[in-house]
Amino acid sequence: MFHVLFEDEAAMLRHEVDPQQRITVELFAQFVADFLAHGYVFVTPADVLRGLDPAGRYALITFDDGYYNNRLALPVLRRYGVPATFFISSDHVLSGHAFWWDVVYRGRRAQPLAPAAQAAEYALLQRLHHLDIAEYLRAQFGPAALLPVGDLDRPFTPAELAAFAAEPEVVLGNHTAHHAVLTHYASADANQELAACQHYLAHLTGEIPCAVAYPNGNVSAVVRAAAATAGLELGTTVAAGKNYLPFAQHGVDMLLLNRFLLWGNRDVARQCALFRTDFQPKRWLQLHRRRLAA
């Protein structure tokens, strides 16, 4: 899974956006090429829902949030003829507001906090609802805090997103209206966050999303039920791991799929090899415990 995509290292050094995984276009291209070289086919959520041949090797590229910088992935996708799914926080597209973590990243470079205090601030903001987040950011960093500083940190505009979605390599998915960490929301509010994003993306593109990425990876039985109620059939978390085929045989819930994070400050080929390996310590421990309990 990916978030921000940088044109190059120089763009990262402008410090306009939280670098997160530190992924440049070059590193993203290396990732795609590596999986293709090992016989993998890149698929869409619709492909997964239609059913995949268990004898094949598959990967699903996902980008979360809805950054305009994600358009930089398109030349790579075209070059290799592969699709990617972009999970969109729809209200950011409508409002044009920057994402809160980028506001904090820039603000705390100018007004630093002690590490423990900064960790507490992030934890607080992950728990708050969007109106409270906006109020907090303006109180901390000024009335213009939510205004993006450039193309690197801003979301797509509606027109840009509609054009992007029309590209054959692009699939859009649900990331809630306000990047809502749904485990901190009442059931009705979680339903509304998902439904609002579904409605907006369907209206914008004419296509009803079938997939959701839960913001921050936070999911519970209540959140899973809300996703199903919204008509979503495939859901992605941030739990690291492969999703083994056939899903039914391996107990894989299509609304709770695992994903891997690629990091730009580590060797790409080595990470890709680890993603592909069948030795997953967590999975091995789970199977071992089941055998002991049998």
TrEMBL record:
GO terms for biological process: carbohydrate metabolic process. The keyword Transcription does not apply. Residues 57-294 form the NodB homology domain. CDD domains: CE4_NodB_like_5s_6s. InterPro entries: Glyco_hydro/deAcase_b/a-brl, NODB_dom, Polysacch_Deacetylase. Keywords: Signal. PROSITE patterns: NODB (PS51677). It is found in: Secreted. GO terms for molecular function: hydrolase activity, acting on carbon-nitrogen (but not peptide) bonds. GO terms for cellular component: extracellular region. The keyword Signal applies. Its main location: secreted. Pfam families: Polysacc_deac_1. This is Polysaccharide deacetylase family protein. It comes from Hymenobacter polaris.
